[in-house]
Structure to design on (594 residues):
């Protein structure tokens, strides 16, 4: 089967029986070049839905359960019906069986609120070849910091802002990347209006000071990154100290190393921050890449 | 032709000749029940695009030019190619000629960044019957104030937040309406984290103190409402004072009347704010409705 590969999914209630064998009846393969969605889809009209992107490396879907758990968490924050994770898992398995078993691919899972005034959510899975990120894993990225407009306490105060949910409303994230390119950089690190590190538009931030690795506390204002968690487990297994905490912009600037980590691009070193060169930990970045490319569950 | 009515549009460059007669070749009518969009559409993957919703009353499309001007402004803020407004205008004319010439309808215009890695934006028009808003125009709405998480100066400081553009990333707007329903209300008025009135999730706010009508200054942090502007013109023609200015939550609470105004629901009185009854100006609300239902350009 060639890429891209698209599967429309009729979402089942979370408590539908976990047999697995009949889930395939709820899947419909469609040609990626063919229209599959109606214009009254709320995903397209309102960015109203949630998603996950996971990596498939040489036929192994990475971190399926953490991604599905986050999909369920995002759905909960957005008052969407709880997804049937066994059904989603079966959809991923079917896709992995159909797509090339070599190389790096990306699978996107989308759960939309459905057609306007419609009875139920719509859902689909879309698998495509990953871009070739080998060069950027080697050479790193130049990043800028951008004010996300929120202060550090906003998530607790205003849950309707849906911070912590991976929604389809990513226009600001995309605009922040365009702003980086406009300034001659490659990527962005969002900071709060009161000066604390949040996350990248499509990545988590990890910093190293000495032998301590830190990432912003998942207070609800940022997404809890699956790749970041996987790397922290790896680091802990190898005897390193890891810490979730508030990180000021100043601490970011004075870090011994900074990485942006995400499911498909994996770990990339920040080699320049707001135009100032940053120290780079090349051996560790290489270890990270090697680990992240190995089969992970 | 029955509703809904959908027209796919191949967007032309802004400077394509303004002949009008051949624009129809760039329009394709599609059945609303049929899929028309690919899953790799960035509108659906990222909420990455802009839109307008305008009203059609008894066969007359209301305020077409102001809506198209705002579409162009939104596209500019989002770094989308400038839309060809003559083409969009022709699309609206074609739709109006095809849909019922009686009653109230809504036309949505969508300009999406297009298919991922694709060459150009995608665009469509979708016409549907408007909900029956007569009851709510009579009885008004109960509203709550919700913190939008931004301070008053954010738009100048952080243009990448796309405030002032009508993007498809409306998940937060929809969540704010759900929060209102959860609290037993009908609608929301967003306020800044430093206590100033912004706008509703799908409407503008107008308040009256004595004979002065005010709306929050369109500083870039809010959408400049087409219906609000139309009403201000109407009020000025009738000798009333209108003012664009910063409005504190306290001023909202002590107003002699508050309206939420939007293109399709039109002007609805706020009869209760955060659980407290508000004074209602029923005669003026009726005049507003009468004016807003009359043909406007």
């Amino acid at each position: 089967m060639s890429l891209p590969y698209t599967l429309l999914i009729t979402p089942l209630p979370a408590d539908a029986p976990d047999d697995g064998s009949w889930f395939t009846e709820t899947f419909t393969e469609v040609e990626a070049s063919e229209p599959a969605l109606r214009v009254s889809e709320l995903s397209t009209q309102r960015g109203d839905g949630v998603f996950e992107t996971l990596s498939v490396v040489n036929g192994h879907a990475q971190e399926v359960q953490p991604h599905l758990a986050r999909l369920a968490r995002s759905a909960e924050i957005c008052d969407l019906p709880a997804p049937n994770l066994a059904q989603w898992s079966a959809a991923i398995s079917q896709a992995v069986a159909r797509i090339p078993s070599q190389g790096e691919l990306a699978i996107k899972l989308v759960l939309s609120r459905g057609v306007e005034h419609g009875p139920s959510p719509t859902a689909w899975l879309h698998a495509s070849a990953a871009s070739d990120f080998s060069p950027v894993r080697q050479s790193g990225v130049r990043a800028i910091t951008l004010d996300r407009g929120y202060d550090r306490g906003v998530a607790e105060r205003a849950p309707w802002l849906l911070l912590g949910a991976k929604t389809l409303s990513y226009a600001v994230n995309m605009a922040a990347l365009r702003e980086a390119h406009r300034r001659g950089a490659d990527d962005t690190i969002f900071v709060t209006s009161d000066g604390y590190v949040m996350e990248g538009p499509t990545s988590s931030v990890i910093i190293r000071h000495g032998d301590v690795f830190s990432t912003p506390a998942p207070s609800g204002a940022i997404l809890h990154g699956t790749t970041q968690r996987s790397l922290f487990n790896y680091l802990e297994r190898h005897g390193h100290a890891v810490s979730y905490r508030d990180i000021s912009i100043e601490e970011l600037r004075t870090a011994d190393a900074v990485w942006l980590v995400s499911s498909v691009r994996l770990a990339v070193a920040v080699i320049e921050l707001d135009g100032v060169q940053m120290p780079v930990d090349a051996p560790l970045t290489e270890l990270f890449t090697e680990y992240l490319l190995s089969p992970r569950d």
User: Anything to note?
Assistant: The longest helix of chain B spans residues 64-77. The mean pLDDT of chain B is 95. The first strand of chain B starts at residue 5 and ends at 9. Chain B has two domains: 5-130, 135-293.
